[in-house]
């Protein structure tokens, strides 16, 4: 909980490849929307088209996502991405990112001081 995994410029778009292994996962991103570009290298079915914030990733499958990040910036308050299966989330299957003003990514600490409330 005291780390930042990614520092992202506000309003940016990134392509994320999400892969599961051994178990299916329901992948969710806070503070961003995405479009599913591919499922197992193929065009997504109709029900996966349009803006999403959660996608099911089958056992030993991959999805390619075009992630559009929010424009609200706060270098000290992270958003999460995680598996929505509570057992997985409770066991730490999550990461955190902050959204910052473009050009300030290198100035942001990737550790949080939880004693001070940040």
What topology does this entry show?
Blueprint: E1 6-9, E2 13-19, E3 25-29, E4 32-39, E5 54-57, E6 62-69, E7 79-83, H1 86-90, E8 94-100
The number of distinct structural domains comes to 1
Return the CATH class.
Mainly Beta
Strand arrangement, largest sheet? 1-8-7-3-5
According to CATH, the homologous superfamily is Cupredoxins -  blue copper proteins
| Spans of at least 5 consecutive residues with low confidence | 114-118
Shape: globular
Number of helices: 1
CATH fold assignment: Immunoglobulin-like
Oligomer: single chain
Beta-strand portion reads 35-45%
CA distance, first residue to last residue? 10 Å
CATH architecture: Sandwich
Radius of gyration: 15 Å
How many β-strand runs?
8
Largest sheet: 5 strands, mixed
Structural class: mainly beta
Helix content: under 10%
Q: pLDDT average, as an integer?
A: 88
User: What letter string, H or E per element, gives the SSE order?
Assistant: EEEEEEEHE
Could you characterize what this model shows?
The chain is 4% helix and 41% strand. It has 118 residues and is mostly beta strands. It has one domain (6-116): Immunoglobulin-like. The protein has a 5-stranded mixed beta sheet with strand order 1-8-7-3-5. It has a 3-stranded antiparallel beta sheet with strand order 2-6-4, with no helix packed on it. The longest helix is centred in the C-terminal third of the chain and has 5 residues, at 86-90. The model is unreliable at 114-118 (pLDDT under 50).
């Amino acid at each position: 909980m005291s780390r930042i995994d990614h520092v992202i410029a506000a309003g940016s778009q990134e392509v994320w490849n999400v892969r599961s292994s051994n178990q299916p996962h329901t992948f969710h991103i806070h503070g961003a929307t995405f479009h599913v570009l591919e499922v197992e290298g193929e065009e997504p079915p109709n029900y996966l088209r349009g803006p999403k914030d959660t996608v099911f990733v089958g056992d030993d499958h991959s999805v390619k996502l075009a992630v559009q990040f929010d424009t609200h910036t706060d270098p000290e308050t992270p958003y999460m991405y995680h598996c929505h299966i509570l057992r997985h989330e409770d066991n730490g299957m999550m990461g955190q990112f902050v959204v910052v003003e473009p050009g300030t990514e290198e100035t942001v600490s990737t550790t949080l001081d939880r004693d001070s409330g940040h």
